[in-house]
Amino acid sequence: MNQFPSRETVERLRKEYPQGTRVELISMNDPYSRLKPGDRGTVSAVDDIGTIFVRWDYGSGLGIAYGEDRVRKITDK
Q1: What is the pLDDT of residues 52-64, one digit of tens each?
Q2: What is the CATH classification number for the domain harbouring 45?
Q3: How far is CA 20 from CA 45, 51, 75, in A?
Q4: Tell me: the pLDDT tens digits for 11-30?
Q5: Do the Cβ atoms of 18 and 25 come closer than 8 Å?
Q6: 19 assigned to some structural domain
Q7: Which domain holds residue 22?
Q8: How many CA atoms does the CB half-sphere of 24 hold within 13 Å?
Q9: Which of these, 76, 77, 5, 75, lies nearest to 47 by C-alpha position?
Q10: Structural domain count, the chain
């Protein structure tokens, strides 16, 4: 990806994924990551370039890169 997201997009991400939101990984474009689709974690922050930082349940703190990786919100019951 060559461009950073707009300020409006970053604000939308911050509203959609506030701190404490539970997420599940759909896909990650990182061949060195141990994360796999279905892994779950908790959002800790969204930075100024749209990276969603997640504390993954297995202990990793890897972020979700805007435009490259995908997560979805979940509700644990």
Answers
A1: 999 999 998 999 9
A2: 2.30.30.40
A3: 9, 15, 11
A4: 999 999 999 999 999 999 99
A5: no
A6: yes
A7: 7-73
A8: 8
A9: 5
A10: 1
